[in-house]
Amino acid sequence: MPTSNERELKYLYGALLPPKLPAGWSLGPEAAPITLEDTYLDADGQLAAAGWALRRRSDESGIIVFTLKHDATTDGALHRRTETEVVVSSADGGPEPTIPSEIRAIVGTVLGTDLVARLRPTVSLLQRRQAWGLTRQGQTVATMSIDQVSANGTHWTELEIELAASLPDREVEHLVTELRDELERSPQISISTETKPERASRRSV
To answer: Residue 13 sits in which domain range?
Structure first.
């Protein structure tokens, strides 16, 4: 059950091709595009009110992953959070997978077993993702993705840059400064302070 601290720049994006990068940065080969189906679960908004989020994700490979997100902070385009992931099974046409016991235990310990029993799907998203590795002076330091998102009859595109988990916070701060100084000059890029499910929920109102 891997747990990681995510450091990610999030932007609304008005294009489908990669943006101009800072000097010394380069784009790696593009990974094969994938389609992601995300469903977020909550109990009458109580999970979100406590600053937590639970996502069930499947992709074209058939793998289903549950991700529990918490301790999230936002500083402009920079989003930080702790994520715990559990791979459940392949989507082979069998019954819909239940929330893994490991995640139930974490949520139950912090927020109560009653809340766990009431978790239900709330927001669903469909994403078409293009992704590239980013290198700086020959070292791979991040992954960049362009996500075309559909939810509740609305559509938008996001640009995300996730810094490598192995990088120390001081180096991340330096890299983030370089990226923001270049990216945020583009008229096609605007800071996103919302998560995807937050934006989908707001647009559905």
So the answer is: 3-204
Q: What is the DSSP string of 82-119?
A: EEEEEEEEE-SSSSPPPPPHHHHHHHHHHH-HHHHHT-
pLDDT of residue 95: 56
User: Do β-strands 78-90 and 25-30 pair in parallel, antiparallel, or remain unpaired?
Assistant: unpaired
Cβ proximity of 125 and 105 under 8 Å: no
Number of folded domains in the chain? 1
CATH number at residue 76: 2.40.320.10
CA dist 43 → 48, 56, 104, 146, 151 (Å): 9, 15, 13, 30, 20
Q: Give pLDDT, residue 113.
A: 87
Model confidence at 120, pLDDT cuts 50, 70, 90, reads: very high
What rounded mean pLDDT belongs to the chain?
92
